[in-house]
What we know:
Layout: E1 6-7, E2 12-13, E3 19-26, E4 31-37, E5 43-44, H1 46-49, H2 53-66
Antiparallel strand pairs: 1-3, 2-3, 3-4, 4-5
Amino acid sequence: MSAIRIWYPFTFTSRTEQVYRVSFRLAEEATWDHRYHDLRGAELSAVELGLHVSDISRIQASCDAAVGSVYVSIPQRASSASAGDHAPAP
């Protein structure tokens, strides 16, 4: 699991019309530790935003979908023990 927090690239709007951002961490197969922030970065609670279980599920799905949506070239395979063993060029 990653200790690095990642920002979801778009804002969300609560049921009370408050615009907020979401940050999360990456696990092996999904995002986790979702946190909600005002536009200045201060952390907000789900209660402050009036989030329902369905809202939190939508946020989870959106963050999961965002992961891997950008192509990243990795010069070396993570499973490789050899420094000279590189992944093929894109």
